[in-house]
Amino acid sequence: MAPITPQNLIRHELIGLDAKVVGSPNRSLIGLEGRVMDETKKTLILKVGGKRKIVPKDVAMLRFRLPDGRIVEVDGRRIVARPEDRIKLRVSRW
Predict the structure, then answer these.
(1) Which pTM was predicted?
(2) CATH number for the domain harbouring residue 65
């Protein structure tokens, strides 16, 4: 698979990336920050401290740190899909 970049992030594996919720109508989610441990069609599971926190994708604006240190913000609605299906999607640039 190609290296992860801001252009291909939403078609790439998210597990292992550091993520932060920077916006959401659910104020209790804002500021949650941790490593993506798992992903389902509608949620990301973050390791926050020693705990697992479930973040619904469709109500979160997420900031990911790429392995090269770059920061990318993604509207969670753009990544609502099963991970195995999302990596096959054809996506226009944002």
Answers:
(1) 0.88
(2) 2.30.30.210
> In this structure, is residue 66 part of a structural domain?
yes
What range defines the domain where residue 56 resides? Answer: 9-86
- Residue 59 backbone dihedrals phi, psi, to 5 degrees: -120, 20
Give 10-residue mean pLDDT values along the chain (94 residues): 85 94 96 96 95 96 96 94 78 50
- What is the secondary structure of 38-64 as a DSSP string? EE-SSEEEEEETTEEEEEEGGG-EEEE
Task: Note whether residue 71 is domain-resident.
Answer: yes
Strand locations in the chain, DSSP E?
Answer: 18-23, 33-39, 43-48, 51-56, 61-65, 71-75
Does the residue 77 lie in any domain? yes
CA distance 27 to 17: 23
Nearest in space to 17 (alpha carbons), one of 1, 41, 39: 39
Provide the 3-class DSSP secondary structure of residue 37.
strand
